[in-house]
Every structure is written in C-alpha cells, then in structure tokens.
Design brief:
This protein has 317 residues and is of the alpha+beta class. 27% of the residues lie in helices and 26% in strands. The protein is built from 7 helices and 18 strands. The strands form 6 sheets. It has a 5-stranded antiparallel beta sheet with strand order 6-7-13-11-12. A hairpin with a 4-residue loop joins strand 6 and strand 7.
Length: 317
C-alpha cells in the first residue's frame, strides 16, 4: 500500500495550513462501525469556507478526497484512505422563520437538530430520532424510517421536509439548489452520481404540539431498541443491504439460516435480532465484514434467487 503522491500531499498540506492537517489518522474511531485504517491526511473543516477551500484544493492538486460526517453507513477498508479525509464540522443551526430551519451539513440530526426543532413545537424531523446521521449524510442517503405508531405502514423520508440546500457542485461553484435537484429515491440522491457536497440544508417543518412529537420519539426509540443493536456495545453501520420491495433483505438472510451467524474470527456477526445488520464484536476488520456480506449475498442468491445489494458505502483500501 502506498501513499497518494507525496508531492501533492505536501502541497495540499501547505495550502490548508500545516497546523491544521494531520497525517496517518486512524479512521476507525470516527465511524459507527469502529473499523478502518488510517487516512494519509486528515482535516477538520469548521466552516463552509474551510470546507470549500479544502475540496477545491484537493481537486486542483488531484488528491483523492472523502468527506466524513458521523461515519455512519460506511465501511472503511483496513488499508485506510489514500488521500485527504475531511471531517465536516459545519454545526450552525439557524431558525429562519416560524417553520423553516437551516442547518449546517455537520449538524447531528438527533442530538442537535431534532432536539432544537421539537423544543419549538416543529415536527417532521422527529421521526428520525435515534438514527446516527449528520445533515449532509441524511441528504446523501435520503434518510428514512417507518411512519409513526401504531400503523407503521409507510416509510417516512427526510426529503419530505427538505426545501433547499447550499452545495459545492462538481464544477467547483457554490450554489443554492431546490429539493428537486437531488432526485431523491429510496436510499438514493443525485449525490451518489455527482461529486457535489452539501454545505447546509433548509428544512420546512410543521407546527405540532411538543408533547405529541415527544410521544412519537419515545415510541420510535423503543421500536429501534427492540430490533437494533446498541452502538456502544455493538458498533455497526446500520442496515447493510438495500430494501427489496415486498421482501426485506433481513427476512431473506434469516430465511437461509444466517441470522446470528458468527464470522470464524469471532470478531464480527450477523446480528441475532436483525439479520440485515452486521456488528463488530470487538476488533473486527473490514475483511471480516466483507466476508459476511459476501456469504449473505451468495447464500440468498443460491437458495432464494434474490440478489441483495449493499446500501452502505465502501471507502478506501
């Protein structure tokens, strides 16, 4: 394994300031999976201007870059990332009027944004309580959860409350775009296809009694606790495979007998309570997780005829 071009890395360090750029930073502690090797360079962007400057510099110097939010929904390779990893720390929240709020890409959905909006009696984001995601990551994957109890018959998507966003586009321009720009779908936005980066998002919410919002939050947290692993005990990246309409990927993995399957290393496992989640039991490597993913795909295809596709991102070597 070799570093990205050393001259380019040095030039990028000079552009961003040697005091602000770190070398060989392990990425595992910065992901919810707690897995991943080091980044050649690591930079914390504390403002939109810093984020834009870092991305433009990396592109001009042809240094590969990766934007890291909360590190959810990704598996970082054991070899780390050859290039620049930028940690988005754009954490400003601004209420524009009675129903609209603008949040930086680095704002955590649950810990900051949901609490701030629910305290003002604004609903729409409260559905996503307990899901580890930054604002930028939520737009990238079109964050979703089941509709409120008791029916839970419909999937609620974050795009339903998105009004507009500020992005740095592939051409290096900062521009304001409307919701339609993202072409949202299930686990999809146009950010999957273009190297655009979200700087902030404006949400349009609905007034609703705070007590009602918090009741839904309690129900959703209980529902998640009954099915999902506690990230402090069982680090994971959430659901591994994309939903197949009418047939859950987890149901298929359970059907072929792999629910609870332990990797031979003893370090990773298909979660016993939710077969579409793989957990790090301690010291798991990306290779262990990939082998469980491959096993699930092969077995489900062979025994059911269904092809299950990962929804998480694979980053680095």
């Amino acid at each position: 394994m070799s570093r990205a071009n050393e001259e380019a890395l040095h030039a990028l360090t000079e552009r961003l300031g040697a005091a602000r750029v770190q070398r060989a930073v392990p990425l595992a502690p910065l992901t919810t999976f707690r897995i991943g090797g080091p980044a050649d360079l690591f930079y914390r962007a504390r403002s939109a201007d810093e984020l834009v400057r870092a991305l433009r510099a990396a592109r001009e110097l042809e240094v590969p870059s990766f934007l890291l939010g909360l590190g959810a929904n990704v598996l970082v390779g054991d070899g780390g990332f050859r290039g620049l990893v930028i940690r988005s720390e754009l954490e400003e929240i601004e209420f524009l009027d009675e129903t609209r709020v603008r949040a930086g890409a680095g704002v955590r959905i649950y810990h900051e944004l949901i609490q701030a909006t629910v305290a003002r009696g604004l609903g729409g984001l409260h559905h996503f309580v307990g899901i580890p995601s930054s604002v930028g990551g939520a737009i990238w994957q079109n964050l979703h959860f089941l509709s409120p109890p008791p029916e839970r018959e419909r999937t609620v998507f974050i795009d339903e409350v998105v009004e507009s966003a500020t992005i740095l586009n592939a051409e290096g321009e900062v521009r304001r775009v409307e919701r339609e720009y993202f072409e949202f779908g299930y686990d999809f936005s146009t950010l999957h296809l273009r190297p655009d980066v979200v700087l902030d998002v404006t949400f349009r919410l609905q007034p609703q009694p705070e007590a009602e919002l918090r009741a839904v939050m309690r129900e959703n947290l209980q529902w998640r606790d009954d099915r999902h692993p506690d990230l402090w005990l069982y680090p994971s990246a959430g659901s591994i495979f994309k939903k197949i309409e009418g047939v859950g990927a987890g149901r298929l993995i359970d059907q072929v007998g792999l629910k609870g399957h332990l990797h031979p290393s003893g370090r990773a496992q298909i979660f016993p309570r939710h077969a579409n989640i793989i957990v790090n039991l301690g010291g798991a490597r990306a290779r262990d997780v990939r082998e469980l993913i491959d096993l699930a795909q092969r077995t489900v295809a062979r025994e059911t005829g269904y092809e299950i596709t990962p929804e998480i991102g694979f980053v680095g070597e």
